[in-house]
Amino acid sequence: MTMQEFYDQYGVTKKDVFQLVLGQENDILPGRGFGGYMVVVGDEEMICFNDKLNDKEYRIPYAAFQKAEFGIGSGNLWLQCVVDGHFFVFCTTRGGWKSEQGKRLLEKIGAVTPIEDMKAYEQLTGKFFWFWAMVK
Description:
This protein is α+β, with helices and mostly antiparallel strands. The protein has helices at about 5-10, 95-100, 100-110, 120-125, 130-135; strands at about 15-20, 35-40, 45-50, 55-60, 65-75, 75-85, 85-90, 115. It has a single domain (about 5-135), classed as PH-domain like (Roll). It is built from five helices and eight strands. An eight-stranded mixed β-sheet has the order 4-3-2-1-7-6-5-8. The protein is globular and about 35 Å long. The termini are far apart.
């Protein structure tokens, strides 16, 4: 499925989609580390899609999030979560975290469980990012 077919199927546009990259294999979304998903950030759940996995969609209710914490590794901002008792780690680009959908996703998760270490988020997405990146 092409990106346009995905947009048409879900009635969304590029700005409505959050793209995440898995940090490792997990019991929440199938795939290996660095596998990618397109995510529609819904009102009650994330709808995740990877066209390399049989065009199947995976739904993750926000209510299933039990813990969330930001961390920076390999120059990327990772959201490390516990979802239904399982470890789930993902990241996206700096622009992805700053996007409307990235902010909305954090709002939805944050409504269920506090997101720890928002300082890491602010460092990566803030106006002094380039200064911070140079001193690291």
